[in-house]
Amino acid sequence: xxxxxxxxxxxxxxxxxxxxxxxxxxxxxxxxxxxxxxxxxxxxxxxxxxxxxxxxxxxxxxxxxxxxxxxxxxxxxxxxxxxxxxxxxxxxxxxxxxxxxxxxxxxxxxxxxxxxxxxxxxxxxxxxxxxxxxxxxxxxxxxxxxxxxxxxxxxxxxxxxxxxxxxxxxxxxxxxxxxxxxxxxxxxxxxxxxxxxxxxxxxxxxxxxxxxxxxxxxxxxxxxxxxxxxxxxxxxxxxxxxxxxxxxxxxxxxxxxxxxxxxxxxxxxxxxxxxxxxxxxxxxxxxxxxxxxxxxxxxxxxxxxxxxxxxxxxxxxxxxxxxxxxxxxxxxxxxxxxxxxxxxxxxxxxxxxxxxxxxxxxxxxxxxxxxxxxxxxxxxxxxxxxxxxxxxxxxxxxxxxxxxxxxxxxxxxxxxxxxxxxxxxxxxxxxxxxxxxxxxxxxxxxxxxxxxxxxxxxxxxxxxxxxxxxxxxxxxxxxxxxxxxxxxxxxxxxxxxxxxxxxxxxxxxxxxxxxxxxxxxxxxxxxxxxxxxxxxxxxxxxxxxxxxxxxxxxxxxxxxx
Length: 561
Description:
four-stranded antiparallel beta sheet, single chain
């Protein structure tokens, strides 16, 4: 069997900057023997971070999700309560609501900030509503005065979810002190990091006391080893705090560099049609977490196609978050409430995050922007019109070997299987059956009811390749729904479109989705007599072993971070 091709070094979408005193402080903490949830670095971090955020107190915790959980418990959120949150955010915001038994109610985002739209809050408030979580998305503050006004009128609390916006400012005021409390994440890809870590900032003494009690197993802060309530071990370690102390020493430089990177991108990308930028309100000073853009129709290619081609050029990207109201844990309740979030859906389908980290230099930004310009010019020159995809799937990277053939069409698109494709897919499958290829492609039944149900699937991935709006290929990644980390791939190409590079392109597209969902390996099965398929997969780096007397199992380790 052929060996997988070597993969060139990739530009990551994010990378921690540990170029200061991080190592020295960690070693000092280790040598002091204070490595758990007490020590000078923890005290120093909490004091300095509170001051930096304009809050009375900061409580270090073990991650950003825990920070949200702790804040909700301290605010006495209970089963049956409702919390208003944006749908365009990381799932931790909604998960924390579920942890305390509350129901997240999803609100559309504002076109002008990409954060929760204050004008949409009133209509969602019911007698069960207890509060609002305002997420400062991708480094841009939410409109806190407007949000706090709605909350005050209705007797609600507000939490800032500032996981992605450390040190950003709203009307001159730093985030972290603009609501009842605020939560932060220090995950490895965040603006400042401790690998894992989080914090809650608060200026309410009673709320602080409750948080301290719950964070430390429920212990009474004034009476050692007495536990008046059931608590949690949510504490931060002194080692994590040591890393953060070193990060805070350089916070101005870190924020300044990110803003410089943001400016470099805008200067170069403004010349490319069809790339839209994150809006910045005139009252906001953003701290860019990632360089967030939207791939508009004028670009000529879908977001997913752009991401795939960037990944093939060695540039990692991330799509915007999948809207929470479309994810399996929440979609049925959202549908029952008839939530319609058009701005969220549009941004999620077209948004792309480009590499952003303080170790980047201007040359790296220039290289990324030139790659985007090449993709844009090539699509114009060849007249390849990929329709904007309505997918919520992610795109990552896998290396594509050289090929002598490439597939070109004036109307080629990869689209997630939808109800509008059902009739065309059934016709396609009948063509495959007539060609005698069903013996090589039989992953599920092909009746109308089954195909319609697949069109509504969210966890597993089902795609069609369309040429002139007719189904030319069908592919899938299955296994996530059953809880497997390693999905299984299946693909079929119409006989009239074979041997032209479409199958290879489609396979690489599916590889990218698997990788970006966190899968490190992908598998498939191939009949031993399907020599053409075996050769194709070998050329893409698959290794085959005998599974049964008539079948090979192929596996591929996916490249990248």
